Amino acid sequence: MNITPYLEHLLKKNNLTTFEMMEIMRACMAGDLSDSQLAAFLTLMRMKGETVEELTAAAQVMMEMAHTIDLGDNLVDIVGTGGDGKNTFNVSTVSSIVASAAGARVAKHGNRSVSSKSGSTDLLMKAGITLEIDDSDLQRCMQQYQLCFLYAPHFHKAMQEARKVRQELGIRTFFNLLGPLVNPARPKSQVVGVFDKKWQKPLLDVLVNLGCVHALVVCSRDGLDEISIAAPTDVLEYHKGEYSEWTIVPGQYHCAHNRLDEITVNSAEESMSHMYSVLNGEVSPSRDIILLNTAAALYCADVVGSFQEGIYAAVNAIDSGAALERLQQLQVFSQNL
Q1: Is 108 labeled as ligand-binding?
Q2: Are strands 233-239 and 242-248 parallel, antiparallel or unpaired?
Q3: Is 45 left (phi over 0), alpha (psi -120 to 50) or beta?
Q4: What does the alpha-carbon distance between residue 185 and residue 63 come to, in Å, rounded to a whole number?
Q5: Is the separation of the CB atoms in 138 and 69 below 8 Å?
Q6: Is 111 annotated as a binding residue?
Q7: Nearest to 225 by CA among 78, 329, 121, 100
Q8: Is 233 labelled a binding residue?
Q9: What CATH number has the domain spanning 4-65?
Q10: I want to staple 207 with a disulfide (CB 3.0 to 4.6 A). Which of 10, 118, 212, 314 is the partner?
Q11: Can you list the GO cellular component terms from the UniProt entry (predicted)?
């Protein structure tokens, strides 16, 4: 495919139409772009700044070409866009386990690390969770445990065409923004963390365009792409046709720890250590950040009626041993496949 006209268009900081974005995304997903063409396209899109229309079109193409799965209704996902450069342990993954133990039905969409030290998949595999399983087993896992992990390459095989280029570029691209938008189970409730406040409203608009009925897009003022223990986190919410904006201040929820350097990791092994620390009920910065992010998931899933109630439910899920038991159930489930 000749994408030179598109590149010239982007060089002039002109936006792409829905048709143009869909056309080039289909070429990308089909492997019709060379590595250099794709790298140029991703870089120029980043320099121009992606629009709601472009991101919606790109997500629609990815879902059009994806293998989707029916896991029932009332699903929630909690995920960050990545690209924040903070190298924290896998907060959204551990929060998903705790949220499911507290009553949410969580369809966690994830992948191996591209821009961080340890991706969701890296941690789960290290913990003995089998990810490449067929749809019937995933559906059984959801039915039994209210949680399953959806390994992105299994559902978005075409996305692998871009993986090598993304890794070699080593910068945030719009694929970081797309990841949270293309969950193959199509959850109607989503908590999405972004690394930059400028992306809050655009991503919320894209989620609404794609059919979300309850969505929280969160951005910490310290640049974390999830709810932080070290700074207030701004929340944009869409629920039942209405938009609202509010702020989570960690100190208001009895978070005694506020140092991000205590929750950073260099490997999946270190992430797993943080996970077990939390699930075993140890008081730590890791526990605090999991409580905050789990509360958001429970509120977004309408399991609880407020963020504060979500904190109480998350504390109970951990301190009762239910969250650790949920992880162990998933490990046994994987062993018996």
Answers
A1: yes
A2: antiparallel
A3: alpha
A4: 10
A5: yes
A6: yes
A7: 78
A8: no
A9: 1.20.970.10
A10: 212
A11: cytosol
Q: How far apart are CA 107 and CA 75, in angstroms?
A: 6
- Residue 114 is labelled as binding a ligand: yes
Query: Residue 111: what residue type?
Result: N
**Residue 112, marked binder:** yes
Q: For residue 78, report the phi and psi dihedrals to the nearest 5 degrees.
A: -130, 120
116 in a known ligand binding site: yes
User: What are the C-alpha distances in Å from 278 to residues 145, 290, 317?
Assistant: 19, 8, 11
| 88 in a labelled binding site | yes
Q: Rounded to an integer, what distance in angstroms lies between the CA atom of residue 27 and that of residue 248?
A: 41
Residue 220 assigned ligand-binding role: no
Residue 201 token pair: 């409203």
Q: Where are the domains of the chain?
A: 4-65, 75-335
Same fold: 4-65 with 75-335: no
The 8-class DSSP code of residue 16 comes to: P
Question: Token pair for residue 325?
Answer: 């038991």
> Was 18 annotated as part of a binding site?
no
Is 166 marked as binding a ligand?
Answer: yes
Model confidence band, residue 27 (pLDDT cutoffs 50, 70, 90): very high
The residues that bridge with 80 in the sheet, in sequence order, are: 193
* 205 assigned ligand-binding residue: no
Which tens digit of pLDDT belongs to each residue from 257-273? 788 999 999 998 999 99
Domain 75-335's class?
alpha beta
118 is in an annotated binding site: no
Per-residue pLDDT averaged across 211-221, rounded?
97
123, pLDDT greater than 70 = yes
User: Was 81 annotated as part of a binding site?
Assistant: no
- CA 17 to chain centroid, in Å, comes to 26
Mind listing the pLDDT tens digit for each residue in 274-316? 999 999 999 999 999 999 999 999 999 999 999 999 999 999 9
Residue 233: strand, helix, or coil: strand
Among 283, 282, 289, smallest CA distance to 263 is for 289
Residue percentage of the chain with pLDDT more than 70: 97
Choose among 321, 337, 226: nearest CA to 278. 321
| Residue 80 marked as a ligand binder | yes
